[in-house]
Amino acid sequence: MEVRTHKLASERLLGKPVKVGPPEAEVVLETTEDMAVDEYGLVHGGFTFGLADYAAMLAVNEPTVVLGKAEVRFLKPVKVGEKLMARARILENLGGGVGDGTSPQRKKVVRGEVFNEKGEKVFEGIFHCYVLEKHVLEKD
């Protein structure tokens, strides 16, 4: 299980990989007080999204993978102290277009889901990932 992308990702903020792709990945995240947005202990949705996005990146597991767009749904609230599990799987490998910075088979459509420790789905989404020819921040 070699992680080839997002190597500096914080396990505290984005989760710990337990399975790395391709074509699928799993990541677990322990939610903490730092993630709460109110006195009820509601975890900010950005952490749930980040967990699912990280799992999608690890399902592709290419050094230059980036997220282009996502269509997501939050299904249940998450409370501080809950342990979450994200699962992501590549659904489609699509070719790149001329001049878009990708090569053939470099567009990936990935399904991501997040479950709480009771096995209830709290989040689902489709992630449109792109494997670029070079790092997105690398200059010409």
Short overview:
The chain is mainly beta and 140 residues long. It has two helices and six strands, in the order αββαββββ.
Layout of SSEs?
Elements: H1 11-14, E1 16-19, E2 24-30, H2 45-60, E3 65-74, E4 83-94, E5 102-115, E6 121-132
Antiparallel strand pairs: 1-2, 2-4, 3-6, 4-5, 5-6
Instruction: Give the domain tally.
Output: 1
Please indicate the percent range of residues in DSSP E strands (runs of 2 or more).
35-45%
Looking at the overall shape, the CATH architecture is Roll
Summing up helix and strand content along with how strands pair, one would put the structural category as: mainly beta
Summed up, the helix count is: 2
Question: Topology as H/E string?
Answer: HEEHEEEE
CATH C-level: Alpha Beta
CATH domain fold name? Thiol Ester Dehydrase, Chain A
Structure in words:
By secondary structure, the protein is mostly beta strands. The protein has a single domain (11-132), classed as Roll (Thiol Ester Dehydrase, Chain A). The protein is 14% helix and 42% strand. Strand 1 and strand 2 (24-30) form a beta hairpin. It is globular, with a radius of gyration of 15 Å. Mean pLDDT is 92; it is low at 97-102.
Identify the notable features of this structure and list them briefly.
globular; mainly beta; six-stranded antiparallel beta sheet; Thiol Ester Dehydrase, Chain A
